[in-house]
Write a structure and sequence with these properties.
The chain is α/β, with parallel strands linked by helices and 245 residues long. It has a single domain, classed as TIM Barrel (Alpha-Beta Barrel). An eight-stranded parallel β-sheet has the order 7-6-5-4-3-2-1-8. Strand 6, helix 7 and strand 7 form a beta-alpha-beta unit. Helix 3 packs parallel to helix 4 and helix 4 packs across helix 5. It is globular. The structure holds pyridoxal-5'-phosphate.
Length: 245
């Protein structure tokens, strides 16, 4: 026990989530560590990220700018020298590309040529200014049912979008695909289809090997269907707090 109950709570939940990932990898006959755990910290304050970095978490997902940028800046100030990465995983307006390119390792929700161009220009500026040192990673968000509420592009539109990302070599880096399965009903079938699309995509773009799929409710299914990065919020952070950070 420590004198910080929230830290204890996060420690227990993080351990439980890591165990779920490890069990799912084993059940799928996959190598330990082949599915990474990303902690989704949206809605929760910078202090929780500080606690989680202290507990060894090193990959985070955020979904709202400018709140995310402020939070990341605060954690970097509180923990100078700490090694962790933060991805933008929520839908992103073009006008916010500029600030996101300053803090995000990757944007997982790229689903239009316009957003790609905005991110390329923002990442180039950030690289020139020394605000980032590596190309901005891009995951194309796949939509399997064309449901605009979850965003994403259909499989037929992936090649053109991938080419557009590739045209910005050194500024953008094509890392793979991201998918959000429906919360109810056919998550399993959805994740299976996402794995098929990802295999076809990888045949064309071998470097873009990431398949970001699976959340609190379906991470086991996602790992069974080839996820390399599960994005877990509620199961680690708890329910959404009433006040915003
Ligand atoms: C919030 C969010 C998650 C985490 O969802 P939980 O069900 O809380 O684990 C994962 N991915 C995206 C894109 C999200 O917005």
């Amino acid at each position: 026990m420590s004198d910080d109950p929230r830290r204890d709570e996060l420690a227990a939940a993080l351990t439980a989530a890591r165990e779920r990932v490890a069990r799912a990898e084993a059940a799928a006959g996959r190598a330990p560590g082949s599915a990474r755990l990303m902690v989704v910290t949206k809605f929760f304050p910078a202090d929780d990220l500080v606690r989680l970095v202290g507990l060894g978490a090193d990959e985070f997902g955020e979904s709202r700018e400018p709140e995310a940028g402020r939070k990341v800046a605060q954690v970097r100030a509180d923990l100078p020298g700490a090694v962790f990465d933060v991805d933008m995983i929520g839908s992103l307006q073009r006008k916010k590309a500029k600030t996101v390119a300053r803090w995000a390792r990757r944007v997982q929700s790229v689903d239009s040529p316009e957003l790609t161009e905005a991110l390329a220009s923002a990442a180039a500026t950030a690289l020139d200014a020394g605000e980032r040192t590596a190309a901005l990673g891009v995951l194309l968000q796949l939509s399997l049912d064309g449901d605009p509420a979850r965003g994403g592009v259909v499989e037929a539109d992936l090649p053109a979008l991938a080419d557009r990302v590739a045209a910005h070599e050194g500024v953008l880096r094509l890392d793979g695909l991201m998918v959000i399965a429906p919360l109810h009903g056919e998550a399993d079938a959805h994740l299976a289809r996402a794995a098929e699309v990802a295999a076809r995509f990888r045949a064309e773009h071998p470097e873009a090997a990431e398949l970001s799929s699976g959340m609190s409710s379906d991470l086991e299914k996602a790992i069974a269907h080839g996820s390399t990065c599960v994005r877990v919020g509620t199961a680690i952070m708890g329910a959404r707090p009433i006040t915003s950070p």
